[in-house]
Amino acid sequence: MSKIEAKNIRLGRERLYTLIKSPVLTEKSNAGSALNKVTLNVQLDASKVEIKKAVEELFKVKVKAVNTLRVKGKIKRFKGILGQRNERKKAIVTLETGSSIDIASGL
After folding, report:
1. Is 50 helix (H, G, I), strand (E, B) or coil?
2. Which residues pair with 75 in a beta bridge?
3. Which residue, 14, 51, 89, 102, has most beta carbons within 10 Å?
4. What are the structural domain ranges in the chain?
C-alpha cells in the first residue's frame, strides 16, 4: 500500500474501538516501554495502517512505526482431551519521542 493510500484510509468509530483488543502486559513488553514501544493485542484482520490510525486517534499520540506478528494457537491437552488455544495477532507500536501511552488508564 502506498503512502498516499495510507493517508486516505477511513475507519469508523466502531472499527477503531474494536480493532485494539487489549494491551500485552509481560516483562518483555514492559521493557519495551523504555524505548517508546507499546505492545497490543489486535484483531486478526487488522492491517498496519489501520492499527496506526486507531492508536493515533484513540490515544492522541504520533506513531513512528508498527510491527505485527501472528501467534498461532498451541494444541494443549487437559485430562486427556485435546484442545487448542486461540490464535492472536500482536502489534508492537513504536511512538515518536515525547509521546507516551498510559496503559493502566485505559480508554
Report:
1. helix
2. 84
3. 51
4. 3-97
Amino acid at 101: I
Helix (H, G, I), strand (E, B) or coil at 45: coil
The SS3 of residue 44 is coil
As a whole number of angstroms, the distance between CA 46 and CA 34 comes to 26
| Residue 105 identity (one-letter amino acid) | S
User: pLDDT at position 106, please?
Assistant: 57
Q: Once rounded to an integer, what is the mean pLDDT over residues 56-65?
A: 92
Q: Does domain 3-97 have CATH number 3.30.70.330?
A: yes
Cell numbers found for residue 65: 512505526
Q: Rounded to whole angstroms, how far apart are CA atoms 6 and 27?
A: 32
pLDDT tens digits for 5-26?
A: 556 677 788 888 899 999 999 9
State the pairing for strand pair 81-84/63-71: unpaired
